[in-house]
Structure formats: C-alpha cells, structure tokens
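User: Run a structure prediction on this.
Assistant: Running it now.
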Amino acid sequence: MLKEDNFYLGMFIGALLPLLAFTFFEVLQQYVELYTKPSFIYILCIGANALIFRFFIKKEKDNLSKGVLLVTFVYALAFFWFNSKQ
C-alpha cells in the first residue's frame, strides 16, 4: 500500500483520520439519533488512530507509526484539556 516510511506523512494521516471519523459521526447523527455523549464520539475518533497505528506497526513502517502516535497524543491532550475546563 504505502511504499514510503515518512514521519510527516504519518502525522498527516494521524491528523486526517480522526477528522474524517468525526465528520462521519456528525453526518450519521443527522440521520440517526445517537444516544451517546459527545465526549464518547471524540474518544472513538481519537481511537481510530489506534487501528491505523497497529496496521503500520505490523507492516514495519516505524516512521509512519511514530507520526500517527504523536498526533494521537496531541489529540488526546487537547481532549483532556478542553474537557477539564467544563
């Protein structure tokens, strides 16, 4: 699939995947009534990176996985920062 093992590409993929998952849940919520708290949706979107991270680890794409992991930590810190203020 990916021939390159680039840290910045991993950061891009790690940043894009939760945004796509969030967009998917927002569109889904317009058509189906979801009985969940918004924080659960945010955690699911951040957790989507765990799947791609595991895929890159199995394919031995270390730099891609490092980029995904860095962005995942940034998203997780932002989530806890904004939820601690509520």
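The CA atoms of residues 24 and 30 lie 10 Å apart.
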